[in-house]
Design brief:
Order of helices and strands: HHHH
Shape: flat
Structural class: mainly alpha
Helix content: 25-40%
């Protein structure tokens, strides 16, 4: 089971095994305290929307597409 290693070494394909399923109880516990409304309120929409490469922008250091 070294699918990722195969790709990292330059392989063109890899085979990954099946994924263990997460029980509904574990899933619920992982997201028990998540509040989507609080997440939306706390998100900085202006900063997230800023895709400019102008000085001072959040993507100022992003490379230009070639």
């Amino acid at each position: 089971m070294s699918g990722g290693d195969v790709l990292a070494r330059g392989g063109v394909r890899a085979q990954f095994g099946s994924v263990k399923t997460v029980s509904q109880d574990k899933w619920n516990a992982a997201f028990d305290d998540f509040d989507p409304e609080k997440f939306r309120r706390d998100a900085d929409a202006e900063k997230a929307r800023d895709v400019s490469t102008e000085p001072g922008s959040v993507t100022e250091d992003a490379s230009e597409p070639s």
